[in-house]
Design goal:
heterodimer, A: alpha+beta, Hypothetical Oxidoreductase Yiak, Chain: A, domain 1, Ribosomal Protein S8, Chain: A, domain 1, 2 domains, 8-stranded mixed beta sheet, two-stranded antiparallel sheet, 10 strands, B: alpha+beta, 9-stranded mixed beta sheet
Chain lengths: 271, 596
């Protein structure tokens, strides 16, 4: 079915509130999902994949600041979704870059990393150049090493770079597969971000390694997606939509005769 | 000399010096005393339609004798074409409710961008009558519905069938044949996002498409009832006389549903209130001539008669109307007696503040705005804003604390431990998500409270910041938030709104003495509502477009735009012994600065 952007954002916000997100986190998470969906980057699909995880994750352990100095910080999300845990880490990077010109932030152990893009858009809107880097998947740890280089090449490492120019609402995105998996291949479920006040940090593929470009989204393509969404609405999966609606109803309060009578006109207005 | 030649715009500095203090303007009881003004959205729309020569025509009018069927109106602007599509269907009396929880209505309608072909019409016919339960088309800019005022409808139909004009007193009691019960825009139920109109010069102002939908419904209500009269009594039926048509508006029935908007869009509210205040500041510094003085006297007389003709069963609102109307002769006397000083308007504002009720004061302000269209009207283009509350993470926390104490001091004045100060909570009901108020610790739902009360949140955050600062005096806002993330939302709001003082309604929305009606009136006044008729402390009926120029007057491309725009505070048409109706004349309509 087709929905509007406002509708998508509103329903996601209510669903996140119902999942126990604080108000600020719920609206940020909703913006992140809706932003990705608006630009046809699969925001709802990413949410759908992470929804069971989010519902199961009732942990109240906030992201922990592991290390911080003037222009560098490392945070541990303890496996939480970026929807819940990344915005303050990003704001910390923003503050450091404002003060020092450039800052690097590493968020360790986070989930749903794709969805971080929407918040980067927001920082870019506030005049910051932002680039995020993460490795999407990699050869299963032990197997690849023991099976040798040939098999490792068959299960490539996928890297993703998302770069926003300051002031731009859309990023340049590159997703590519690296065939030569490095010797050091620790599990990587983090995101690394670089923010700079004054210089663009847009992705531009130059590598001596063998790379397969899997996806390339240019600013102009993404703007066309937005225009399409405004003209035709945004396609959503009926099942997921129904699931979000069902979640959102958790915030609603049962009706009583007293509450009904106090809220508005009569139930019969034949005057 | 033309009127505009007499006016000159004050400098920004002088304008700022003359602005009223936010602590005065943003009090809830004052906002709840506002009247529609020439900056209200209905007025702006009518001016724009006339200035740009918008044309409205009927492209389909397929109604049966009972008035049921489909009507389509075409709107042609210099830029583009739109269509108003109205579905009228039988409605069982038992199902007629003004509440959002209703599921069927006398008419349902929408405004479409572009043309309506058969497939779109079919899609709309299947979904528009369902309203919230339908899946609406993305080319719909507005979705709405309305119910008949049964008493007026029957009386009007009987009279027109019998070949006589309906008694205009009917419209003085209830100023419409239809009242809308919701007018949806901005992406609701699948319709177009407001963002789609961002670059469309026809509808850039907030709520302008919604007001257009209501204006088209008004035209339909006239055409429909005349059609029904002709069908029922072909030999005797007459058309409605022009003064009566003009005196016919569209009602709106509104409950607590309006309240969340005011709190959730502080940047928009800032624009609305600030624009009005800046316009008032400009007017207060104008040097009046005798024509302006006489024009204001005439406007006061018209408003006085309008208020005397305003009927409400609500005893409090009746008393407020009486008090305002009874103060106005003194205002006219004051105006006629004082010397024509350079600072006359500022003196009038100061005198009103000391002497008159809040509603009367705000009425004077509304009328003053009428005097200087050239200065006031440009502010209508300031009513919209790209919204977005943003964090400033690198702000020193101590600076944030200062901002709260300077700009949100009003939020720190309450004792939220006092049961009277934490009496209400806001929530959404399972019934169509209708916003409601419950009594804390008595009614269920406080655990799912809507966080509309800003003051207690600010006070809570202020306390936590205070504690944090004693251990971390040099902390930044983001460092505080990493330790206390639940304050992110309210801090973002405070940082975004601190320098924009007209965005926050300065009230404790938990307090037992808080009157939700004031919230409704605040928004409705900016829409351009008149005949404010509270039905309880939580819902109200109002009238829009009563007195507004008719579609045929618009289509005739009026040459005198100032006269076309002069329709505030409409009066009941006079009826002579023969039953002929003519426009009421409270006072000779003398335009300030008219050719002399």
């Amino acid at each position: 079915m087709k929905v509007s952007y406002n509708e998508l954002q509103g329903l996601c916000r209510k669903a996140f509130q119902a999942m126990g997100f604080e108000d600020g986190d719920a609206s940020d998470a909703a913006d992140m999902v809706a932003w990705m969906q608006l630009y046809e980057l699969g925001g709802l699909a990413a949410l759908g994949r992470g929804l069971d995880f989010l519902l199961a994750d009732q942990g109240e352990r906030p992201p922990e600041l592991v290390y911080s100095d003037g222009d560098l910080a490392v945070l541990d999300s303890h496996g939480a979704s970026v929807l819940k845990s990344s915005t303050l880490a990003l704001e910390l990077g923003f503050a450091k870059a404002r003060a020092r010109g450039l800052a690097v932030i590493k968020i360790r152990h986070c989930h749903n990393r794709q969805l971080i893009m929407g918040y980067l858009a927001r920082l870019a809107g506030r005049g910051m150049n932002v680039t995020a880097f993460w490795r999407n998947a990699q050869a299963p740890d032990g197997e690849a090493r023991t099976a040798g280089a040939e098999q490792a090449a068959a299960t490539p490492l996928i890297e993703q770079v998302v770069g926003f120019r300051a002031g731009s609402s859309v990023p340049e995105i590159r997703v590519y597969a690296v065939h030569e998996v490095p010797e050091e291949n620790e599990p990587n479920d983090g995101v690394t971000l670089i923010m700079a006040n004054h210089v663009d940090l847009l992705p531009s593929l130059r590598s001596e390694y063998q790379l397969d470009l899997l996806a390339r989204h240019q600013e102009s393509d993404l703007l066309a997606c937005r225009e399409r969404a405004m003209q035709q609405g945004i396609e959503v999966d009926d099942g997921l939509w129904a699931q979000l609606k069902a979640l959102a109803t958790r915030l609603l309060v049962e009706s009583t005769e007293a509450s009904r009578s106090g809220a508005g006109a009569g139930t019969h207005d034949n005057d | 000399m033309r009127r505009e030649d007499l006016a000159s715009r004050l400098s920004d500095v002088e304008q700022r010096l003359r602005l009223r203090a936010p602590d005065e303007v943003m009090q809830l009881d004052r906002l709840g005393s506002l009247h529609a003004s020439r900056l209200s959205f209905v007025r702006s729309l009518v001016r724009q339609m006339a200035r740009q020569r918008w044309q409205i025509s009927t492209t389909r009018f397929e109604l049966d004798a009972e008035g049921h069927g489909v009507a389509i109106y075409r709107l042609q602007t210099p830029q583009a074409r739109y269509h108003g599509v109205i579905f009228s269907q039988p409605l069982d009396d038992a199902a007629r409710s003004d509440r959002v929880i209703a599921e069927a209505w006398d008419v349902t309608f929408g405004v479409v961008e572009g043309d309506v072909d058969d497939s779109l019409l079919e899609q709309m016919a299947a979904n528009v009558p369902l309203q919230e339960a339908g899946r609406q088309h993305p080319r719909l800019l507005v979705l709405s519905r309305a119910n008949r005022s049964l008493r007026n409808f029957a009386a009007f139909l009987d009279a027109l069938c019998a070949g006589r004009q309906p008694d205009p007193a009917w419209l003085t009691r209830v100023g419409y044949l239809y009242r809308t019960t919701a007018v949806y825009g901005n992406g609701k139920f699948g319709i177009a996002d407001f963002d789609r109109l961002k670059h469309n010069p026809d509808f850039q102002r907030p709520f302008s498409t919604q007001m257009l939908a209501v204006y088209l419904l008004r035209h339909f209500s006239i055409e429909q009832i005349e059609h029904m009269a002709r069908a029922r009594a072909p030999g005797s039926a007459v058309a409605m006389a022009a003064p009566l048509r003009r005196y016919l508006g569209i009602g709106n029935s509104t409950g607590l549903g309006m309240a969340p908007f005011l709190i959730n869009h502080p940047q928009l509210i800032q624009r609305w209130v600030e624009s009005r205040e800046k316009a008032l500041a400009q007017v207060s510094g104008q040097v009046p001539g005798e024509p302006e003085r006489q024009r204001l006297v005439a406007l006061v007389a018209r408003a006085e008669r309008h208020l005397a003709q305003t009927v409400t069963e609500d005893s409090e609102q009746s008393a407020r109307n009486r008090e305002t109307a009874s103060a106005l002769p003194a205002v006219r006397a004051w105006l006629e007696q004082v010397p024509l000083a350079e600072e006359l308007w500022q003196e009038l504002i100061d005198w009103s503040r000391q002497t008159l009720s809040l509603e009367a004061q705000e009425l004077i302000h509304t009328l003053l705005l009428e005097l200087y269209p050239e200065i006031v009207d440009p502010f209508e283009d300031q009513m919209g804003v790209e919204e977005g509350l943003e964090l400033t993470p690198d702000m020193p926390l101590v600076r944030l604390k200062q901002l709260i104490e300077t700009h949100y001091d009003w939020a720190l004045r309450h004792d939220f431990g006092d049961p009277e100060e934490r009496y209400w909570f806001w929530y959404r009901s399972v019934e169509k998500e209708e916003p409601r108020l419950g009594v804390r610790d008595v009614e269920p739902g406080a655990d799912r409270e809507l966080k509309l009360a800003i003051a207690p949140r600010v006070a809570d955050t202020h306390g936590v910041i205070d504690d944090f600062l004693s251990a971390h005096p040099r902390a930044l806002v983001v460092e505080f938030l990493i330790h206390h993330p639940r304050h992110k939302d309210i801090i973002r709001r405070i940082q975004s709104m601190a320098e924009t003082p007209f965005g926050e309604i300065r009230a404790n929305l938990w307090a037992r003495e808080m009157k939700p009606m004031h919230l409704l009136r605040t928004k409705l006044s900016f829409f351009g509502a008149s005949r404010f008729d509270p039905k309880s402390d939580r819902w109200v009926r109002i009238t829009l477009f009563q007195g507004a120029p008719l579609v045929e007057e618009l289509n005739a491309e009026p040459s005198d735009l100032i006269d076309f725009d002069d329709w505030s505070f409409p009066l009941e048409p006079d009826q002579d012994a023969a039953g002929t109706l003519k426009e009421a004349d409270a006072q000779p309509r003398q335009h300030a600065g008219a050719n002399s």
